[in-house]
Fold this sequence. Notes:
This protein is of the alpha+beta class. 42% of the residues lie in helices and 17% in strands. Helix 1 (12-26) runs parallel beside helix 7 and helix 14 packs parallel to helix 16.
Amino acid sequence: MEENVFLIENDEAVLEERCLLAAGRIASFPGTLEDEALRAYFTVLREFVLACEKERKELKRDRTVNALLFRDLEEERYPGSWLDPAHAVREAGAVGQLLAVWYAECLSLVASLYERKTEFTAAVLETTIQIFNIFEQDDIEDKEQAVRSVIYDYLYDYAAVMTADHMTRNADPDCHFAYDILMNADLTDTGDHSWLYSYGERITKEETGTAQLMASLPESVIEEMARAYTEGYIRGFAMTGKDITRKSTVLCYLPLGFDRFMRAAVRQFEAAGLKVILNRRPVHLINARFSGNVQPGFYGAINSRFAFDHREDLALFWGDKLKACRLQARSQACAQLKEKLGQLSGHACVEIFGVSAGTPEQKPEAPAFNAHQLEVTRAYLQQDHELMEKYMPEEETSYTIIAWPTPSAADAFSAMTGLDLKDAYRMVFEKLVEINTLPAGRWQMIQQDLIDALDQAEYVEVRGCGGNETDIRVMLHSLSDPSAETNFENCLADVNIPAGEVFTTPVLAGTAGLLHVGHVYIEGYLFRDLKIRFEDGRVQSYECANSSDPEEGRRLIRKVIFHDREQLPLGEFAIGTNTTAFITARRYCLEEKMPVLIAEKTGPHFAVGDTCYSYEEDIAAFNPDGKRIAARENECSVLRHSASDQAYFHVHTDITLPYEELGSVTAVFGEKRIDLIRDGRFVLPGTEELNRALQPEVCGLGAARNGGVS
């Protein structure tokens, strides 16, 4: 690989000529190929490439073109398309897996044509021709390996430039593509929402429906929404004693349709001295993420089945050599971007929810990392974090995250009440605005009462009720100076919006028992009768009722919850106190779609994997009462000083136990026991106000269930 990460052909005339020649060659597909499956595949690629080339020249940026370019991502079309690895393997045999992966990479052409990245367009088109040529040559016996080699070479050869491009757009406020669209578009509801098609992302009724609602909201509501987001971000710095005035930029995530909210946030950030950077989510395989459910950048509609099937495409090529290549590319890019990375304050994330992913189907045809590749990935993540720590130290950066619903979040509520979906969505959205902007002061003192009781305890005992079999003991750290230290963070609306939880890092030794949840949505997927047993704070066994085959259920847990790790520790124990969010989920039929960010505030929750303080254990943080949060590491993360490769798992998955399945939460110290929650209600003196939202006459559940709202 070249030493200069920015060494790339920049003669636009030459690049344009390469694109024209390649597109002309692709126009002749499928040529003389005799295999019907391959003829069908290359015909699909031909039509897609020619549609991209037509739009590259005409730039219509409209609904019709968008639907054509992304048609195989339509939920109805996807299962029979060449993007679906099951279909591809069924039609073309083993090589179909690679063909599906390559088609997914070809989708990056849409982003490239709108951002005028001609060099990337040429690279994808020319690689497509190389793949096609393999099937035209009779003397290549192992065509599957030949295709694999061509794609591998593409990844290796373009790792430097594609990585540099993506990282530059994540750090440089002068990259104005999305910013210019956002700040100059007419965001009023004209019915066509034409600006949305300028981003080069898939646009569906979710994005247009959201944009329509955004256009109808009073400016005061938009400003309030944005203020919760921007001020929460800024408070996150103050909470940990970090100086935000030393920074000048912030990277924002924009789910398209929420443009009016983000425009207000941009203005508020800029008034606070921070320039906003808006970069596209990663679109090239070489930049694929290894974990995480929130899209990092601006993004349109996501087909959840496509995302699940292709989440480990890199497994077909991943190993020590490509790991080294990717790390070298990122290292070189960091060196070039040193000053800009030093000015980046962190990430202001926006999550959306609405379209349910249901239960994911684990297709054997979809690529999956093997045990060795998982170890390579873990080593990569550790080394990449150490690299980024040189340029963006954790002690200088922060983040925030907020979640908003899209129209599909109101589907069930609309069906239950008979309301038009548009009206139902507005009601759901207004309730989420209320939740996300609730004054944090309402919780501060109530949660402090919980913390004061918990800080006396040796351990917390959590038990289920009815059919829930939860029975678990969570050990707590001993405080050397209780007058100045605390085990639990008083979580208000700062980095983690909305307000409403107290959380800690458990001691692993002695933490043991069964966590059981009747039904819970994790990363958008439903788990039924999820059971995880812990011994000395680590996962010992697990099961769920998602499949009649127990091993299939365990595989699903390993994939979605554990991210293919085994014996993860219990990284967090928390008590959610936002009963308003809990009852909103029930009243508006949102339980199946509420993201973890909000769901974790609606009951006790447990996180498997790293602690909430991973990589920030040595940064002092204080609660509003001035006490230092002492419980910031466990027996795993303490190894960061002696064996950093064993300290972190790069997984943190929250599992919430809802109030109605909860028998008790009890703080235990010696012979003394203090109930915090009993039979799904808060019983600790000072916390009774949290039960108000749970009363039927307050929450209006009866009216909603009878077809009305209150």
